[in-house]
Amino acid sequence: MPVIVHRPLPAVEILQEEGLDIRFAPKERGSIRLGFLNLMPEKEVCERQWLRLFAQVDVNIEIHFLFLNRWTPKTTSLDHIRQYYSPVSDLLQLDGLVISGAPLGTKEYDEVGYWQELEEIFDYADDIAESTLYLCWAANAALYHHYNIPRKQKARKISGVFGHRIVRPHPLVQNLTSGVQFPHSRHAEARQQQLFAHNEIQVLMHAPNAGAFLAADDLRRRAFIFGHPEYEADTLYKEFRRDFDKGLSPQAPEYYFLDEEGKELPTAFWQASGVQLLQNWLQAWVAK
Question: At which residues is there a site annotated Important for substrate specificity (predicted)?
Answer without folding.
Answer: 185
